[in-house]
Write a structure and sequence with these properties.
Layout lengths: L3 H17 L5 E6 L4 E4 L1 H7 L3 H4 L10 H11 L10 E10 L5 E13 L2 E10 H20 L4 E5 L5 E4 L1 H7 L18 H17 L3 E7 L4 E11 L5 E10 L1 H52 L5 H33 L7 E4 H16 L4 E6 L4 E4 L1 H17 L6 E8 L3 E8 L6 H4 L21 H11 L3 E7 L2 E9 L6
Helix pairs in contact: 8-9, 9-13, 10-11, 11-13
Length: 494
């Protein structure tokens, strides 16, 4: 008949096996002296010894001679171990019944049953894990070798542990020139080496994936970097895997989209400014036409010829102003859409400018003194319609923004392969804050006050000059402005 102690051990073994049998790891339960009492099925598979063969043996019976001293040193610490706490011993080798060894990760826990101390030893098979890691690494390499991305692996010292063939295509360096080396040792710039050190260290410290976009080769190429931490069984980062993808085309597409959105906003602003300008500029001549025609209609029989002529002239002037406004809008539209024709022809510049000056002078009466000089004849090839816009807009602005009776000087000077057309006034000048925007469509200087204008003239002038492959410059201050337009003499090949 079994003794109470034997019955208790049988009961304990039954309970222990119920739990240990569910574990994938090899387990043995031993007394405090190291004698094995119980063992699960996993230890049988791992060591080749049956439970009956192991029972009564010391735990060290399973340990190979190479790991025995390490095991005994760890066994000496069991007495001082705290019951219920898992103690990690480290990696050892145990011997198989067939003669070979198996690498395991050993841990143990001390516990007590009815005043008796036991120790459960956990042998975690590393061989299977190593085989899985090997297969995983083989799979990784087979994928990485054919990847279009740059794949690299780094250790804590920032050394390259692995690089795929794409790295050579990008850097020109062979694997032998990269593996085991840091970026400094590869000859990278101080900035590049510092960047990699900092970002790799960040992954080791934060233990999380980092994604960044970085420009390289003078910002001509953009790369999307992904840095992924790789962990050991204790959850510590042992290496960092990185992949870099060329996203230059994507960044260019993004930039194009941004430009399109900016252009759309600009067009929206232009539309708003055009509506504001048109409603203002059309209102005055339309009011003039309406009031003049009402007077003629209501008082036709009472008006003498002189008053009728004056009213008709007002209507004619208002219509001319509206026509000019529409022409300006049409010209701007053609220029900005690239549909403006450029037809240069041989022209006597002095004679052509003189005719325009006379026309404008006749319309302003004796309001200003228009002083025109051209020392030498100038023959050049210009588009007469466009060049007329240049002369007319600059001259009318000089008159509009200067006091009545003041001088406006117009001068033509021939250079070697070009001529310079200049206009100087003694007007209100262009504020410095407005000078950078002077040639923008619909822009008007902040000091124009109630002087009418569309903000189209200077934009037309600049575009017309550029179609002639010329240049326009100006100097301005309170008290006067001078514009100089340089136009090549020969424009037939433009």
């Amino acid at each position: 008949m079994a003794s109470p102690a034997e019955l208790h051990m049988t009961e304990l073994e039954s309970q222990w096996q119920a739990v240990a049998g569910l574990s994938a790891d090899a387990l043995v339960a031993a007394g405090e002296d190291g004698t094995i009492h119980f063992s699960n099925k996993a230890i049988v598979n791992l060591s080749g010894y049956s439970n009956r063969e192991l029972k009564g043996q010391l735990v060290e019976y399973l340990v190979t001679s190479e790991s025995l001293s390490f095991f005994k040193e760890e066994f000496g610490r069991i007495t001082g171990a705290v019951a219920g706490e898992v103690n990690k011993a480290g990696i050892i080798s145990i011997k198989h019944k067939q003669g070979h060894s198996v690498q395991v990760d050993l841990s143990y826990i001390k516990w007590q049953y009815r005043q008796q101390v036991f120790v459960t030893y956990n042998f975690h098979n590393l061989t299977a894990r190593n085989e899985q890691e090997f297969q995983s690494d083989q799979m990784f390499r087979s994928l990485a070798e054919f990847s279009q991305d740059m794949i690299m692996r780094f250790d804590k010292e920032h050394r390259h542990l692995y690089v795929n063939p794409v790295v050579k295509n990008f850097t020109g360096l062979n694997k032998e020139q990269v593996l085991g080396k840091t970026h400094e040792e590869m000859g990278a710039s101080v900035e590049t080496a510092r960047f990699f050190r900092e970002v790799i260290d960040r992954v080791f410290q934060k233990k999380e994936t980092i994604r960044i976009e970085v420009p390289v080769r003078g910002n001509t190429i953009w790369l999307h970097w992904q840095l992924v931490p790789e962990f050991d069984t204790q959850g510590e980062v042992v290496s960092v895997m990185t992949s870099a993808r060329d996203i230059t085309d994507l960044k260019k597409a993004e930039e194009e989209v941004r430009k399109m959105l900016a252009k759309e906003r600009e067009l929206g602003d232009l539309k708003s400014r055009f509506i504001s300008m048109a409603s203002h500029e059309f209102r005055t001549p339309m009011s003039t036409i309406l009031s003049s025609m009402e007077l003629i209609e209501r008082y036709n029989e009472r008006l003498d010829a002189e008053k009728k002529s004056k009213l008709f002239n007002q209507v004619r002037s208002a219509i001319k102003h509206m026509t000019q406004l529409l022409n300006d809008v049409l010209i701007i539209g053609k220029i900005e859409s690239g549909k403006m024709e450029f037809i240069p022809e041989p022209t006597d510049i002095a004679l052509f400018c003189s005719e325009i000056i006379d026309e404008i002078g006749a319309s302003i009466g004796s309001g200003h003194q228009l002083l025109f000089t051209c020392a030498n004849p100038v023959q050049a090839e210009v588009d007469k319609k466009l060049f007329r816009q240049v002369v007319t807009n600059l001259l009318t602005n000089a008159i509009k923004y200067s006091a009545a009776g003041s001088e406006v000087q117009i001068e033509i000077v021939r250079k070697e392969e070009a001529f310079v057309f200049s206009i100087s006034d003694r007007g209100i000048g262009i504020p410095e804050a407005d000078q950078d925007k002077l040639f923008e469509t619909f822009h008007r200087a902040s000091n124009v006050g109630n002087i009418s204008g569309t903000g189209l003239g200077m934009s037309i002038v600049k575009n017309a000059v550029e179609l002639h492959k010329g240049q326009i410059t100006f100097k301005s201050a309170a008290g006067g402005t001078t514009f100089e337009v340089l136009i090549p003499l020969n424009n037939t090949d433009k």
